[in-house]
């Protein structure tokens, strides 16, 4: 590992501290080095706040060292005014002579313009250092920019005999959610919820389980709730309609008099590919990542349309013998780990 890789790796570590708070901005990390000593570090503030480069520069106690320093950053510094001024301008203002960048920013307002601005000011710019690692770290932002859709994570729990839910007849006598996994797996899912911008379920999951879809078992922000409700069957008594969390309902009903106050609605055509339309709506709402929690039909819709990036599957030791079968898919195995009695298996698409 060379010196540039060392400090870009540290920048990635710093960037991870922004997971779940920066969206729709990317979670960028930045390190400032003077004579092989780190003199400043920073990562992207929660959305609307300063970018990583600003925080790193502000953290430098002796700013007279900056004209002899090198700035390392996972993503190309911005060159445009958004919620904050351009980071490239700040780097130039402090006469930082060298900038090392993990990857170029594909955002159409940046896309090389930040690099051009730095070079025009006499800054030496090095690009594509640990590019693969930076792409993996910034996967949510990059998927949103390059594919015009959120990064999609499918999640479900299944029994040892391959069922995602018990026989529907059993639900009539016991409408409460039936937990397949143990409490530690459940808590991990709440951590995941805090890391993603939105969470999605179908109508049947709401009607049968009445989920809250929040992060009550983990410290962190609640994701935006996205609910498929073709015929507006879900009434105001359900948790997802309580207005406590921003909620977006996708329906075919255009009559706005049937919409609930405090809930956002978007009309889609359920006779056409649904997952594709969901992605289009979420892109319009600047949602960069989505956790799809069910049910089986909803999950299978994303799989069949090829619109998913990760699948996180809990396999438990329970047996149903009968019930709703887990989704069927083909993916590339990424990891497998034990969570007490459960096994968490993670796949990548393709």
UniProtKB/TrEMBL annotation:
Pfam families: dCMP_cyt_deam_1, RibD_C. InterPro entries: APOBEC/CMP_deaminase_Zn-bd, CMP_dCMP_dom, Cytidine_deaminase-like, DHFR-like_dom_sf, Eubact_RibD, RibDG_C, Riboflavin_Biosynth_HTPR. Binds 1 zinc ion. It comes from the Bacteria. Its cofactor is Zn(2+). It catalyses: 2,5-diamino-6-hydroxy-4-(5-phosphoribosylamino)-pyrimidine + H2O + H(+) = 5-amino-6-(5-phospho-D-ribosylamino)uracil + NH4(+); 5-amino-6-(5-phospho-D-ribitylamino)uracil + NADP(+) = 5-amino-6-(5-phospho-D-ribosylamino)uracil + NADPH + H(+). Keywords: Hydrolase, Metal-binding, Multifunctional enzyme, NADP, Oxidoreductase, Riboflavin biosynthesis, Zinc. The keyword Transcription does not apply. One of its GO terms (molecular function) is 5-amino-6-(5-phosphoribosylamino)uracil reductase activity. Pathway: Cofactor biosynthesis; riboflavin biosynthesis; 5-amino-6-(D-ribitylamino)uracil from GTP: step 2/4; Cofactor biosynthesis; riboflavin biosynthesis; 5-amino-6-(D-ribitylamino)uracil from GTP: step 3/4. Its EC number is 3.5.4.26, 1.1.1.193. Residues 2-126 form the CMP/dCMP-type deaminase domain. Converts 2,5-diamino-6-(ribosylamino)-4(3h)-pyrimidinone 5'-phosphate into 5-amino-6-(ribosylamino)-2,4(1h,3h)-pyrimidinedione 5'-phosphate. In the C-terminal section; belongs to the HTP reductase family. This is Riboflavin biosynthesis protein RibD. It comes from Flagellimonas iocasae.
């Amino acid at each position: 590992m060379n010196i540039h890789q060392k400090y870009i790796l540290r920048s990635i570590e710093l960037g991870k501290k922004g997971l779940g708070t920066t969206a729709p901005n990317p979670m960028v990390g930045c390190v400032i080095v003077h004579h092989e000593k780190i003199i400043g570090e920073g990562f992207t503030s929660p959305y609307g706040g300063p970018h990583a480069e600003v925080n790193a520069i502000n953290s430098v106690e002796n700013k007279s060292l900056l004209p002899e320093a090198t700035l390392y950053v996972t993503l190309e510094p911005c060159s445009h005014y958004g919620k904050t001024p351009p980071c490239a301008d700040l780097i130039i203002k402090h006469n930082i002579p060298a900038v090392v960048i993990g990857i170029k920013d594909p955002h159409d307002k940046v896309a090389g313009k930040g690099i051009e601005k730095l070079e025009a000011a006499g800054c030496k710019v090095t690009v594509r250092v640990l590019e693969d690692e930076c792409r993996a770290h910034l996967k949510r932002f990059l998927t949103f920019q390059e594919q015009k859709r959120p990064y999609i994570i499918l999640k479900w729990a299944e029994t040892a005999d391959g069922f995602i839910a018990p026989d529907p007849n059993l639900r009539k006598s016991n409408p409460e959610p039936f937990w397949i996994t143990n409490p530690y797996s459940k808590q991990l899912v709440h951590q995941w919820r805090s890391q993603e911008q939105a969470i999605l379920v179908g109508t049947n999951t709401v009607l049968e389980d009445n989920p809250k879809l929040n992060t009550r078992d983990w410290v962190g922000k609640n994701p935006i709730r996205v609910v498929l409700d073709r015929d507006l069957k879900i009434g105001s008594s359900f948790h997802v309609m309580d207005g406590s969390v921003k909620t977006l309902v996708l329906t075919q009903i255009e009559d706005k008099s049937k919409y609930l106050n405090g809930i956002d609605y978007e009309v889609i055509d359920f006779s056409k590919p649904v997952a594709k339309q969901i992605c289009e709506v979420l892109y319009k709402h600047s949602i960069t990542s989505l956790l799809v929690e069910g049910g089986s039909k909803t999950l299978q819709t994303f799989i069949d349309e090829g619109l998913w990036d990760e699948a996180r599957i809990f396999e438990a030791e329970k047996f149903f013998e009968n019930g709703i079968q887990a989704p069927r898919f083909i993916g590339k195995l990424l990891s497998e780990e034990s969570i007490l009695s459960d096994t968490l298996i993670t796949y990548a698409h393709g």
